[in-house]
Design a protein that fits this description.
Layout (H helix, E strand, L loop, with lengths): L2 H28 L4 H8 L2 H34 L5 H7 L2 H4 L2 H12 L13 H26 L2 H9 L4 H29 L3 H4 L12 H10 L3 H31 L1
Helix pairs in contact: 1-12, 2-12, 3-7, 3-9, 6-7, 7-9, 8-9, 9-12, 11-12
Length: 257
């Protein structure tokens, strides 16, 4: 067997074992009781409330990250200041930090005994804050390399022709950054939709109010309602697939510009 075919076969088998078979098992379990039971599970008031809250919070976080992540990336690339390397390294901390530890950090800082006098526990603001904490690096790291490779001569030429900094950014810089910003925001959204550890402690998990879909699924499993949990998880999986295809489309636009 040619080496290329062997490598393809091994990689396909590994992908199936690690990803495709487990996902197929979840979908199969979700429909184990038939379409009617699946529909009842995903349209239960608590399920709808959890999914809607999760999607809205993830959209808000993605929008915030698109702006603040781009700003942070701009500062790290275009400005020099003391401690720049430390700040640049700290950006990746949410990637390495266990999410439950992130939840403890947020609870300590913004909980009832907050040292800064700000308590957001058991509120929807806490959910947005937790999601933003773990997803900010996606936009920063997506925009940074594009900014580094961006030809500064075009900006200098525009400035020499009398264009203001705002016009230069809007007509030259922003169009080049947009695909990277959208890609980073989509990754942030996908990550936020499935977030669990950083939210479970600070949100309070109040049904119909501050309970996100991942925590709702966990609660169903604890209640031995595995089929219902698989049904809601399947909806989340479908949302994630849509996001994945969106990211791929943005990537193609970015490389084709």
């Amino acid at each position: 067997m040619p080496e290329g075919s062997l490598a393809l076969g091994v990689s396909t088998l590994w992908l199936s074992v690690i990803v495709l078979i487990p996902l197929s098992a979840v979908v199969a379990q979700a429909f184990g009781g038939g379409w009617a039971e699946f529909w009842d599970a995903v349209t239960a008031p608590a399920a709808i409330a959890a999914l809607v809250l999760t999607l809205i919070a993830a959209l808000v976080v993605s929008a915030i990250n698109a702006v603040m992540g781009t700003l942070v990336a701009w500062v790290l690339v275009r400005d020099d200041f003391p401690g720049k390397r430390v700040v640049n390294a700290m950006i990746d901390l949410p990637f390495a930090l266990p999410t439950i530890v992130a939840g403890i950090v947020l609870l300590s800082l913004y909980g009832p005994n907050s040292p800064v006098g700000i308590s957001v526990t058991f509120t929807r603001a806490a959910i947005v804050l937790a999601m933003a904490f773990v997803t900010l690096p996606f936009v920063v790291r997506s925009v940074q390399p594009v900014l580094i490779e961006l030809d500064r001569e075009m900006e200098e030429a525009a400035a020499s022709l009398g264009a203001s900094p705002g016009v230069t950014f809007r007509r030259i810089v922003a169009p080049n950054l947009l695909p990277a910003i959208l890609s980073g925001a989509a990754l942030s959204f996908a990550r936020a939709v499935g977030e669990f550890g950083s939210i479970v402690l600070i949100s309070g998990n109040i049904p119909l109010k501050t309970q996100v879909s991942s925590v709702y699924v966990f609660g169903l499993i604890q209640s031995d309602a595995n089929t219902n949990a698989a049904a809601v998880a399947t909806v989340m999986l479908a949302i994630s697939l849509v996001i994945l295809f969106g990211i791929r489309l943005v990537g193609r636009l970015q490389h084709g510009r």
